[in-house]
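DM from R.C. (forwarded with permission)

"hey, sorry to bug you on a friday — could you get me a structure for this? deadline for the figure draft is monday and I only need the backbone to look sensible"
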Amino acid sequence: MRRTASSSGAQGEVILENPEVVQNAEKKMAYPTHTTNGNEKVKGNRRRRSSSLMYQEPPESLEQQSDQAVLPNLNAQWVNAKGAWAIHIVCILLLKILYDIVPSISQETSWTLVNTTYMFATYLMFHYVRGIPFEFNAGAYDNLNMWEQIDNEDQYTPAKKFLLAVPICLFLVSTHYTRYDLMLFVVNLLATAAVVVPKLPAFHRMRFTFFNPDLAHPDSDQR
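My reply, with the result:
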């Protein structure tokens, strides 16, 4: 705190200045905050829009549909190839062997780790990553995740039925071998729900915008 004194005639005047108060006042003057239309808050040059946490991906344009029909989608066709279904069972068995050879891990913990690892990996593969790793169709699948690309978005095909049944069966097996422990049951249930729910037709093309709310209205800045 700084103190300055000045005199005017016989009367003295003391002015107290707090540097923190002065800095806060300068910031408010430099970055004014006000609201517009009741839904938008403007702070300086940044604008935040209130948006929903979930929205549905719009259908592709005619040009994108034409690009999708030009060449086969190698990113999603492998799920119908020979041995593609068996690789899931092999991966689960390898995970079980891997966790069993680690010392001081019980069977209950081992099955829980197998379940959560498989669910996390398949969620990243089928539901989190969008687009394809190949550059041959002009980005026709950039808005779709792998689950939506399988079988041209048809529901309840043999491949999708199998991919839906595997996490459910693994959850039941994990619950049995964890001896229905409440805490482990909750962990396995949440991990399984995170993979099964996005596969349901009711959540087809649905997007959650917890980490990027601007995705809820991708065209809002162009209006």
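R.C.: lifesaver. The radius of gyration is 28 Å.
me: no worries. Residues 64-204 form one domain.
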